[in-house]
Design goal:
- Keywords: Membrane, Transmembrane, Transmembrane helix.
- The chain has about 60 residues and is mainly alpha-helical.
- It has one domain.
- It is about 80% helix and about 0% strand.
- The chain is built from three helices and no strands.
- The radius of gyration is 15 Å and the shape is rod-shaped.
Length: about 60
């Protein structure tokens, strides 16, 4: 689960950075909504990576 969450974090953070770059370049044509949505997905997946339990820890308890 943590590996999948890390992959989601990496991809969504990269896409959020790209959306931010486009918004900074031409704010009249590119809104900040995709950047904020992808940033929220990246934040949630990072929280899962940092604070989520792994499958091995679940099987031990």
């Amino acid at each position: 689960m943590k590996i999948a969450a890390f992959i989601v974090f990496a991809i969504s953070a990269w896409l959020a950075y790209g959306a931010w770059s486009l918004h900074e370049k031409d704010p009249a044509h590119y809104t900040s909504t995709p950047m904020l949505a992808l940033g929220a997905i990246a934040a949630v997946s990072l929280a899962v990576v940092l604070f989520g339990k792994s499958k091995a820890a679940k099987s031990r308890s």
